[in-house]
């Protein structure tokens, strides 16, 4: 069974079990780019349902669309929001037309759902039209970015949860390793002693900062241009529609949306996406640094730092027996590099806007959703498969501290910089320990004083040194 649908370019035969129509089919055929259809980002599909529902409610309230038709459209939107029609959203993420194919995909699916609820056949658009009713007072140029922003707001919630959980995992290890003495390093050279717990706690703190930055960037997404229609003049929209549609959308979603004060500016502006992308890049940069640190601290086990042990997940070599690699930090690094590259995509696409529209929003949407989705998976994997299972080589890290020349800094308040530098140089040349030089040979300190100066508390709390 099939039906015939027509647009001004001609007719197409459509299987009768399909809810999208001729314009969606053209978009599906024209854009084979990523191979990833819109239904792979359920939040975007649901957001389209919310936007179309808010529009139908506003148009019904204003008498712009017959109440019976509007109510049928609203029922169709509810099916989309519930996720019942996910497989019907088939257009590729990256497409020409600034998202028109995706907007019409939503219009056609909702129109055919409305027709069914009213007892008509799919495609009987004289009763409920994708363009004249579902899309009344709308344009791709205001519905697509509004749905995009709503979908990002919804999508970011689980990503922020993942970051908070990673932060707590770092803090938990910070508490566990609170009294594990280790050597701090700058320039990859021995610096001064510290607690391994402090190192993990620092990683938790820096991830917590990212949650705050994402919250700030997400707040910018609440300003929308719904009701702007084509270029921001609200052409074809009923009087009062923009404010009313935004009010309905806020009530439906629980998100306090703000109608942009300048709809012409808002219709072409993509600054909020650049801001969010920059925050994602910032987090990716931090995660790269953390994972590089973890890989260094776990290096070895015999010929590296060997300060911590990572969970052993898989054999690390097809040729070297017994080798185990830090595969989770490595995959997080690679994910971070991808996100950093996609930020460049967002930047270039945002700068490519022309006059009253930026037609590059589809690639911006692809880049941001792909970044958030992959980053969330990477963050969860880092926590579950790596951080929670890390153990410390406490005796080894303590021995490295006591055998290091870097701890001569602890003696500077007693012996002065010049004499400490001479002691360090002698140790470097002779291979002797600081204890051998200071206590045994030069007798600059008693054993009791040495033990006092190099107790765990004094080593990790410089304020106690005096």
TrEMBL record:
A GO CC term attached to the entry: cytosol
Instruction: Please cite one Gene Ontology biological process associated with this protein.
Output: aspartate metabolic process
The answer to whether UniProt assigns keyword Hydrolase to this entry is no
* Entries under PROSITE patterns matching the protein: FUMARATE_LYASES (PS00163)
A molecular function (GO) term: aspartate ammonia-lyase activity
Sorted alphabetically, the keyword list is: Lyase
Instruction: Give the transmembrane ranges.
Output: none
Cited InterPro entries: Aspartate_Ammonia-Lyase (IPR051546), Fumarase/histidase_N (IPR024083), Fumarase_C_C (IPR018951), Fumarate_lyase_CS (IPR020557), Fumarate_lyase_fam (IPR000362), Fumarate_lyase_N (IPR022761), L-Aspartase-like (IPR008948)
- Per the database record, which ranges form the Fumarate lyase N-terminal domain? 11-341
Entry-linked Pfam families:
FumaraseC_C, Lyase_1
Domain spans labelled Fumarase C C-terminal = 407-460
Q: What is this protein called?
A: Aspartate ammonia-lyase
UniProt source species: Bradyrhizobium commune
């Amino acid at each position: 069974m099939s039906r015939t649908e027509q647009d001004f370019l001609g007719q197409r035969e459509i299987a009768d079990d399909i809810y999208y129509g001729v314009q969606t089919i053209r978009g599906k055929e024209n854009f084979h780019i990523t191979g990833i259809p819109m239904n792979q980002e359920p939040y975007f599909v649901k957001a389209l349902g919310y936007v179309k529902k808010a529009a139908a409610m506003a148009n019904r309230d204003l008498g712009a669309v017959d109440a019976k038709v509007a109510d049928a459209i609203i029922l169709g939107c509810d099916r989309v929001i519930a996720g019942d029609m996910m497989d019907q959203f088939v257009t590729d993420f990256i497409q020409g037309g600034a998202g028109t194919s995706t907007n019409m995909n939503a219009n056609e699916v909702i129109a055919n759902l409305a027709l069914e609820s009213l007892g008509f056949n799919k495609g009987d658009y004289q009763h409920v039209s994708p363009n004249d009713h579902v899309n009344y007072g709308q344009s791709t140029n205001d519905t697509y970015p509004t749905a995009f922003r709503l979908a990002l707001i919804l999508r970011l919630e689980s990503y922020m949860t993942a970051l908070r959980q990673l932060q707590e995992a770092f803090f938990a290890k910070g508490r566990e390793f609170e009294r594990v003495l280790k050597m701090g390093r700058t320039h990859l050279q021995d610096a001064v002693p510290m607690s391994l717990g402090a190192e993990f706690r620092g990683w938790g703190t820096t991830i917590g900062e990212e949650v705050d930055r994402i919250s700030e960037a997400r707040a910018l997404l609440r300003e929308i241009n719904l009701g702007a229609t084509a270029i921001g003049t609200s052409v074809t929209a009923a009087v009062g529609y923009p404010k009313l549609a935004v009010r309905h959308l806020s009530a439906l979603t629980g998100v306090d949306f703000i109608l942009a004060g300048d709809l012409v500016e808002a219709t072409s502006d993509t600054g909020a996406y650049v801001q969010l992308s920059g925050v994602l890049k910032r987090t990716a940069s931090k995660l790269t640094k953390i994972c590089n640190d973890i890989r260094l601290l776990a290096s070895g086990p015999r010929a590296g730092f060997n300060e911590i042990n990572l969970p052993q997940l898989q054999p690390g070599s097809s040729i070297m027996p017994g080798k185990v690699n830090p595969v989770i930090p490595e995959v997080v690094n690679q994910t971070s590099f991808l996100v950093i590259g996609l930020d460049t995509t967002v930047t270039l696409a945002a700068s490519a806007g022309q006059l009253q529209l930026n037609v590059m929003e589809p690639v911006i949407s692809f880049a941001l959703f792909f970044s958030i989705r992959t980053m969330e998976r990477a963050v969860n994997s880092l926590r579950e498969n790596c951080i929670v299972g890390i153990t410390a080589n406490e005796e080894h890290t303590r021995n490295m501290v006591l055998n290091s020349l870097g701890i001569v800094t602890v003696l500077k308040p007693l012996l002065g910089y010049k004499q400490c530098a001479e002691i360090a140089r002698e140790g470097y040349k002779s291979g002797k320990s600081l204890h051998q030089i200071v206590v045994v040979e030069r007798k600059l300190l008693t054993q009791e004083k040495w033990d006092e100066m190099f107790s765990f508390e004094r080593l990790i709390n410089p304020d106690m040194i005096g």
